[in-house]
Design a protein that fits this description.
Structural class: alpha/beta
Shape: globular
Helix content: 25-40%
CATH topology of the largest domain: Aspartate Aminotransferase, domain 2
Largest sheet: 7 strands, mixed
Bound molecules: pyridoxal-5'-phosphate
CATH superfamily of the largest domain: Type I PLP-dependent aspartate aminotransferase-like (Major domain)
CATH class of the largest domain: Alpha Beta
CATH architecture of the largest domain: 3-Layer(aba) Sandwich
Radius of gyration: 23 Å
Strand content: 15-25%
Strand order of the largest sheet: 7-15-14-13-10-8-9
Number of helices: 15
Number of domains: 2
Number of strands: 20
Distance between the termini: 46 Å
Amino acid sequence: MSSLQLFLNRTISLSPANAADSHRCFNSKRGRVCVRACVNADVKAADGVKLGASGGGVSQEVVEAEGRVLVGTYARAPVVLSSGKGCKLYDPEGREYLDCSSGIAVNALGHGDPDWVKAVTDQANLLTHVSNVYYSIPQVELAKRLVTCSFADRVFFSNSGTEANEAAIKFARKFQRFSRPGDKQPPVEFISFTNSFHGRTLGALALTSKEYYRSPFEPVMPGVTFLEYGDIQASRELIQGGKIAAVFVEPIQGEGGIYSATKEFLQSLRSACDDAGSLLVFDEVQCGLGRIGHLWAHEAYGVFPDIMTLAKPLAGGLPIGAVLVTERIASTIKYGDHGSTFAGGPLVCNAAISVLDKISNPGFLASVSKKGQYFKELLLQKLGGNPHVKEIRGWGLLIGVELDVSASPLVNACRNSGLLVLTAGKGNVVRLVPPLIISEPELQRAAEILQECLPSLDESK
Ligand SMILES: Cc1ncc(COP(=O)(O)O)c(C=O)c1O
């Protein structure tokens, strides 16, 4: 039997009559589980939050408490997830979900992969955190592996995708200053593209195309020009102007709606950057690390960056980010230029070694390509004939189903039928990013549920 205690204390003290202290036990696929929720606050249904088919019980209590004690930054789906194994997730009432969201393209090895669990538990027993004041073995081992299997010569670790992009911004500016010592106005500006997503901190946010994300927090970092994703001519002209420190581009855009760059576009960015001395940064936070059946998305194009940023799946669910750079760039970065207390700690790095060792195996990558092809064909068969379905696109296990209406009713109906999928783009794309270990029968089930739920798109009218 496992047990979980949640203590959600508010400093505003309420009368004992208002204090909820609930203790629930239930049977799940993994045995008997007890959850004790001690919420020292008046618990009422949070406005507008209704649980899905699971409704009530511990899930209801968690949702209500969340509405009282967390800053409201997330429009969460009304599901509480309390355990997982492989591609299945369970709520506290034991309801099962097939996971085609992977914690937003993070859980590449699914949930509870035994080698990952061993890497985490072994390392937790040995050493979790030391800071970057000291050396640690897993950090150096992980960096050695990343360097061996990529274009890069050196690695900087961060804790997330947005932080990886912040570091890349700083490295690009430092590189430009350092490599043009006599230049009073070295290039400090950036190019980013429509539908891009690079993160939520003020530098990465400045590179993120959706105005809705940026405008409440302006001024964000100045000097960013957004160009049409794929516009070779406009990119070349702007880069030739000599003010661009770096071009940030996702070889395949995830959040933006699953749009793939063309080879010509990436090649032309590469040659324009080379001619002007600008740096080319590939943000592979979502599309990298095996998601499309290549270890790096840019391998599919044969175009190589100066800097690549990574995060999401690298540590199998623990927070990590990484910036991979060539020696030319690394040589311009000195002690104190950048840093992080937590980044590259022994625990996350040992977890990441276990993930990278699996994902970088050519047989594993080939299986992702094969399953991606299989899934796309199934989706075409089952969904392609529906008049709301405009396009089914993507590579490997990064697939988007573009609709002519909002995808939310379909995503909600799938969830109520036990399938977790995401939206992307302007909310009109269903994003499918299952764990890379998903089986063909599971993909078949996912496609069937999506098909069964298609009528929800008409019901909502
Ligand atoms: C391409 C890309 N870059 C950066 C980020 C930001 O990563 P994080 O949420 O870890 O900060 C994301 C997150 O979705 C992403 O998809």
